[in-house]
């Protein structure tokens, strides 16, 4: 309103462009398709399953969402930065195995293992990013190679050191109780136990959103994903930004790995394969453009929430969980199509 | 041909830099060369840029224009000759280096990131921040305000600095990039074929911004293959062909017709006409080329004549 009053002398800026209503602006947001999908899915399960709306069930849905969502934060940022990572699923397990095997083998306090696992996770991310930047190969190839190597290392080293397919139990070791309190405890809110991962997830989404929208690094992430050459030409440190993103994914993997370890006290060395796609799916459903330069951390969170709802909702609706994967595929297709339509509509108006 | 080439070394003996009043060029290249493997991309190129002057670099595709600006912009490093900034020899390792030395480049194809809002593009790589330590955040409102103000000063009135820059027209995008370079205190502004992909009117708008940048005291390097765009705004003209300089002129020593003739290369056009005839090319096309040959060799071609004939 005030704009039209303060600039009367300027001829109409462009008569071909009308005003965008706040609704249209909202529809232009990357995560709106996912939000619509999440609401539809929520209502759907609320109708078909009476238990779905119970607070305890909802806490379970949130927990399921958080274990995907924590990784989806990093994966979404990386996707906005124009790359993706196929090694995330097994890298989570690598991190957990590092912490448990190291502290078990050397009989140290588990926190030493936890710290080492953080270094290993960041190093995996760094190596992924560094090879990518050095070779300029597609991230699909580089991280597929890392995925295969880590899968082999997880199985091979676990058998070599521990002599089995799972890591030995570390539940009686020093520091286990405090580490469990940090990574795998639950908080009682209104009579319901909410897993701590839910809070970690929300905190990560908040930090990632702040970084993306309000910091220089966020600007660089959009730029390296949108057009890396243009970004480099105006002085954006493209290599450092991309390597940093891979390390951020590594950090998220470390958190989830530590949760897996301290929630159960032992880790199966063959786990994690296939999970990388769940994280990517969550980011894509959440409106992150696979080719980079567009998306949001909140979108990735909504994508993970859709995943959590579908995963647990099928159980609460007492359907056969065999159908889950089909359902997930359908969700992916529908959500991305809705994203596309909504985005085109919003841009046309 | 009575165009007089510039003797590089004596250029500023009688003429001082209009802004700094020192007898030193803002930027100068002396016998600069560059090769990729065994391919010589640029050889023995000498030119100068001064405050408040427009130096035009003209040449056809493959003449070495891109290589030349990539060297000045820090994307590539030259391997022969010297590059001087204010009389001091420099070699840039990265675009950041060149930017820090006050050299900003506006690229034809990679000026901006299309999906990002205008204000994010405007400040990309030089974002304003407030706060300190790990809590340093961008001063979004200030950046939006400055973007709006700076663009308005350049005569671009924007609806919404929040809209993706990809929605602007090609000319507007170039202008945003020019405004950005001017705002960030560039001393040297390199414009890579800013008018190549634009229509007549849009080109005119961009040419006006080039003059605005010049009047603000910037040294402008204007790369183009169109002498009709270069002549009205340029003060000096460097002509490149196959990686070599085929002429370096001051505006007072050359006319548009001579410039066009040098660019087109009368002999080559004649050869082309001959070739087309042999290939049984369309007679109209052959006639057109022959007419052009006649024009060029007699130095009578003007934009007004060429307009309708190509239409």
Automatic annotation (TrEMBL), chain A:
The keyword Zinc-finger does not apply. The chain crosses the membrane at residues 32-53, 60-80, 86-105, 110-131, 137-157, 194-213, 243-265, 277-307, 323-342. Keywords: Cell inner membrane, Cell membrane, Membrane, Sugar transport, Transmembrane, Transmembrane helix, Transport. Pfam families: BPD_transp_2. It is a multi-pass membrane protein. Part of the binding-protein-dependent transport system for D-xylose. Probably responsible for the translocation of the substrate across the membrane. PANTHER family: ABC TRANSPORTER PERMEASE PROTEIN YPHD-RELATED-RELATED, XYLOSE TRANSPORT SYSTEM PERMEASE PROTEIN XYLH. This is Xylose transport system permease protein XylH.
UniProtKB/TrEMBL annotation, chain B:
Residues 27-267 form the ABC transporter domain. Transmembrane segments: none annotated. InterPro entries: AAA+_ATPase, ABC_carbohydrate_import_ATPase, ABC_transporter-like_ATP-bd, ABC_transporter-like_CS, P-loop_NTPase. GO terms for molecular function: ATP binding. It comes from the Bacteria. Keywords: ATP-binding, Nucleotide-binding. The keyword Nucleotide-binding applies. Gene3D superfamilies: P-loop containing nucleotide triphosphate hydrolases (3.40.50.300). SUPFAM superfamilies: P-loop containing nucleoside triphosphate hydrolases. CDD domains: ABC_Carb_Monos_I (cd03216). This is Sugar ABC transporter ATP-binding protein.
């Amino acid at each position: 309103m005030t704009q039209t009053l303060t600039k009367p002398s300027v001829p109409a800026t462009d008569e071909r462009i009308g005003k965008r209503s706040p609704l249209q602006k909202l529809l232009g947001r990357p995560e709106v398709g996912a939000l619509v999908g999440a609401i539809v899915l929520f209502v759907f399960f609320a109708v078909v399953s009476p238990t779905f709306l119970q607070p305890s069930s909802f806490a379970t849905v949130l927990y399921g969402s958080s274990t995907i969502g924590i990784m989806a934060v990093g994966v979404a940022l990386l996707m906005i930065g124009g790359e993706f990572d196929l090694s995330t699923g097994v890298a989570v397990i690598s991190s957990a195995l590092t912490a448990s095997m190291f502290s078990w083998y050397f009989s140290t306090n588990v926190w030493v293992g936890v710290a080492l696992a953080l270094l290993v996770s960041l190093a995996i991310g760094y190596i992924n990013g560094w090879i990518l930047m050095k070779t300029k190969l597609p991230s699909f190839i580089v991280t597929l190679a890392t995925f295969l190597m880590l899968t082999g290392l997880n199985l091979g080293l676990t058998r070599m050191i521990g002599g089995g397919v799972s890591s030995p139990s570390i539940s009686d070791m020093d520091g286990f109780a405090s580490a469990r309190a940090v990574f795998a405890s639950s908080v009682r809110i209104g009579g319901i136990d909410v897993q701590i991962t839910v809070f970690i997830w929300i905190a990560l989404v908040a930090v990632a959103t702040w970084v993306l929208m309000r910091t220089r690094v966020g600007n660089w992430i959009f730029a390296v994903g949108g057009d890396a050459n243009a970004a480099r030409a105006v002085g954006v440190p493209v290599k450092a930004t991309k390597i940093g993103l891979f390390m951020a994914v590594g950090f998220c993997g470390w958190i989830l790995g530590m949760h897996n370890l301290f929630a159960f006290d032992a880790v199966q060395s063959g786990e994690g394969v296939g999970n990388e796609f769940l994280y990517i799916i969550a980011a894509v459903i959440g409106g992150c453009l696979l080719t980079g330069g567009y998306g949001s951390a909140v979108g990735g969170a909504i994508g993970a929430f859709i995943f959590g709802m579908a995963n647990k909702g099928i159980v609460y609706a007492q359907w056969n969980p065999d159908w889950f994967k089909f359902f997930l595929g359908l969700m992916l297709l529908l959500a991305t199509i809705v994203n596309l339509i909504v985005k085109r509509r919003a841009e046309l108006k | 041909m009575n165009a007089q080439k510039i003797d590089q070394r004596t250029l500023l003996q009688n003429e001082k830099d209009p802004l700094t009043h020192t007898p030193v060029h803002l930027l100068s290249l002396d016998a600069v060369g560059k090769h990729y493997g065994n391919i010589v991309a640029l050889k023995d190129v000498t030119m100068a840029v001064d405050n408040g002057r427009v130096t035009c670099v003209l040449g056809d595709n493959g003449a070495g224009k891109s290589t030349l600006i990539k060297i000045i912009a820090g994307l590539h490093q030259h391997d022969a000759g010297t590059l001087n900034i204010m009389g001091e020899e420099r070699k840039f390792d990265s675009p950041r280096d060149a930017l820090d030395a006050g050299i900003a480049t506006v690229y034809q194809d990679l000026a901006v990131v299309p999906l990002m809002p205008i204000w994010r593009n405007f400040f990309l790589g030089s974002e304003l921040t407030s706060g300190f330590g790990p809590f340093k955040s961008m001063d979004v409102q200030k950046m939006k305000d400055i973007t709006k103000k700076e663009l308005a000063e350049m005569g671009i009135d924007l609806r919404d600095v929040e809209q993706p820059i990809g929605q602007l027209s090609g000319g507007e995008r170039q202008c945003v990039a020019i405004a950005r370079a001017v705002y960030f205190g560039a001393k040297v502004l390199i414009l890579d074929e800013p008018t190549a992909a634009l229509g007549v009117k849009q080109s005119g708008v961009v040419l006006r911004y080039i003059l605005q940048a010049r009047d603000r005291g910037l040294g402008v390097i204007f790369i183009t293959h169109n002498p009709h765009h270069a002549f009205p705004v340029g003060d000096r003209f460097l002509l490149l062909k196959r990686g070599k300089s085929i002429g370096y002129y001051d505006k007072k020593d050359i006319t548009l017709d001579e410039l066009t003739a040098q660019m087109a290369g009368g002999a080559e056009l004649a050869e082309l006409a001959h070739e087309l005839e042999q290939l049984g090319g369309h007679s109209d096309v052959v006639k057109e080329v022959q007419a052009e040959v006649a024009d060029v060799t007699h130095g009578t071609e003007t934009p007004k004549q060429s307009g309708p004939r190509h239409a």
